[in-house]
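Let's inspect one such protein example.
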Amino acid sequence: MTENSQIINYGNEIASWQVPEYEKHERTKLWYITTIVIALALLLFAFFTKNFLFAVIIITAGFITILHDGREPDLIKITVTNEGIIVGRKFYDYDEIKDFSIVYKPSQGIKNLYCEFKSAVKPRLSIPLFDMNPLQIREHLLKYLPEDLERTNQPLSEGLAKLFKL
């Protein structure tokens, strides 16, 4: 162990599982053709309106999509402790989290934990539960966080991303 390394205690582990860092979608040839046509139309629009920054953004998005499509997502370990939630190497203390919700809709294939942060600049944390028992996770989190009972569906952004296979 080097002098700079330190062991940080994030509390006692309650539950842990692994999730892919992003959802990899099966895309058909039609999806690629449609995406290319839309990208070309947007590029033409950008050049006709002399909005070259928009053209750069479209081209960059295309390259990122191509690069991501060629690799498999890494697995990230999720750990729920009595001090907070660990996602990969990032620790989220319960003091940073405003509330949580669990959306469980087996018929739609949705079983996710959502955490909203007190800070407006931090995006919502969305964690797939996969084979985890959502009732056990909920029971534990209720000891430390309020539950958002109004969230009964996945966010619109996630639904659209799934629909368009992004």
Observations:
- Residues 6 and 27 are 43 Å apart (CA to CA).
- The mean pLDDT is 86.
- Residues 29-48 form the longest helix (20 residues).
- The first strand starts at residue 13 and ends at 20.
